[in-house]
Amino acid sequence: MRAIVLTMCAGLLVSCGKASVITAPDLSSVHWGLVETESHLSFVTIKKGEVAEVHSFEGLAGSVDKDGNAVVQIVLDTLQTNIDIRNTRMREHLFQTNLHPFATIKTNLNMSDLRQMEIGARTNMDIELDVNLHNISSLIEAELLVTRIGGDKVLVETSVPILVHADEFDLLEGVDILRELAKLPSITPIVPINFSLVFEVKS
Question: Rounded to an integer, what is the distance from CA 54 to the centroid of its chain?
């Protein structure tokens, strides 16, 4: 009788073991959409040479197609600096959102690498981003960390901050206007950007 019970328990363990194996679905023919509520993009400004402040954008949208073409659109009017007057000034004088309501980031992800990733696996990607801001495009090198956080979800995040130079996007005049309005001795024209973006299978 004891042998029968042990045999049944062993069978159950084997069965449970098989059931617990999670096989990640293939990513070769799916479309991914950005999960805005789980995604975040922020940047840091430095004034007076030593005062650092963190800002973010609350409006993000994006997608990745089956060929790995990725695009993220930032709604610049959703800038949040935690100070209302600063929100207004940066939107009006720096980003000029009445003329340039969006910033766009485009790149291509290596889908062959992603297809082989198991759930929970991570991989580093050195990649080139095509950033369009203030109606000016610039190619920026980035180091990204991609994690498959579920069968239908992938997390793409910066492993090191991306440095954006204001002069590359014709923003120096706006920076100077902000400095004068705030009566500051200086605002550093280079800002580090970080993002954490979650993409989910849509079809």
Answer: 16
User: Is the predicted pLDDT of residue 15 greater than 90, yes or no?
Assistant: no
Domains of the chain, by residue range, sit at 26-201
Residue 188 neighbours by CB under 8 Å, 6+ apart: 45, 46, 47, 49
> Mean of the pLDDT values across residues 187-203?
93
**In the block, which residue shows the tokens 């209302």?**
84
Q: Rounded to an integer, what distance in angstroms lies between the CA atom of residue 149 and that of residue 157? A: 12
| CATH number for the domain running over 26-201 | 2.40.128.110
Which range, 9-13, 106-110, 158-162, is most confident?
Answer: 158-162
Rounded CA Rg of the chain: 23
